[in-house]
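= Protein in question =
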Amino acid sequence: MLYPLLSTNPIPLFLSHQTPFKHLTPTPGRGVFATSHIPAKTIIDVCPVLVLGLEENVKHIEHTSLYHYTYNWPTTVPTGQPRTTQAVIFGLGSMFNHSTQNQNIVWERDTRLQIITYRALRDIEAGEELCISYGSHLTFVEADTSAVAAVEEDDGIEQLNQIHID
């Protein structure tokens, strides 16, 4: 069987159909905007992921524009050592823009099921862009850097530990 984990553990896909979204920004680019009120803690999307092999990532993906849409993903090499590779996120997950100041979406990675669940961090009003934090290792200049002190954490864990959802 090609995917034995999936045959015994189906991936719970979910999209809040009561909450329509606009996917294109008013300026060139992409983003996700609420078209109606979204209450805090609402599940926005549950996205399946495609985990890339370490070698595949370094030899191919890092040299393409797709690399800018991938997430760091923990993996273990055959010797048992932990490593970080990249994962392609399907659904809305790769469309959320980054903001440190205006983050209103949090995400939780499930490495066993290979999914990411996105939830509203707070109440979100119609017209607001849905933004997540990409962590402290950005490959671009952050738009709201001037207003926020740079995070000095090596892996962003401290920043994630400060986000709590009941």
